[in-house]
Write a structure and sequence with these properties.
- This protein is mainly alpha-helical.
- The protein is built from 7 helices and no strands.
- Helix 3 packs antiparallel against helix 4 and helix 6 crosses helix 7.
- The longest helix is centred in the C-terminal third of the chain and has 24 residues.
- The radius of gyration is 19 Å and the shape is globular.
- The two termini are 21 Å apart.
Length: 137
């Protein structure tokens, strides 16, 4: 985001080579992410994901932009903070020591419950705080 803010992103290059750039960076990210022994190299995956996000900021007529802006992904994006907050409770396995007193739900029930709780949390709790931010603009 700093590079975008400072105007240091080569937009012409990114627009011209967006599809191959996204495919290559996604492939590299998947390769790097699976190698946990190289911490410094693993940080590159965050950088690559950032470039992928930046390359898809501006509206376009390509497959990637259309996929990222379909109505279901937009809804998941709206709930993403709630999903982030609640996911640990619904994605634990029985083998984790911290899950001893927490009910364990198998797939797909755990994912369904995660989305239901996230929806409730967003609509009946978070929205009231989101409305408050307008007062401070």
């Amino acid at each position: 985001s700093i590079l975008v803010f400072k105007g240091l992103i080569p937009w012409a290059f990114i627009r011209k080579y967006k599809m191959p750039l996204n495919i290559i960076l996604l492939a590299l990210t998947m390769v790097i992410h699976n190698n946990h022994s190289l911490t410094a190299v693993n940080h590159l995956s965050s950088f690559f994901i950032g470039i992928i996000i930046i390359s898809n900021i501006y509206p376009a007529n390509d497959v990637i932009f259309k996929f990222l802006n379909n109505k279901w992904l937009i809804k998941i994006g709206i709930l993403s903070y709630s999903i982030y907050i609640w996911q640990q409770l619904f994605t634990m396995t029985r083998s984790e020591p911290t899950s001893a007193n927490i009910p364990w739900y198998p797939l797909p029930l755990n994912v369904i419950l995660l989305f239901v709780i996230s929806y409730i949390s967003y609509n009946y709790y978070e929205k009231s705080f989101l409305k408050l931010k307008d007062r401070f603009k």
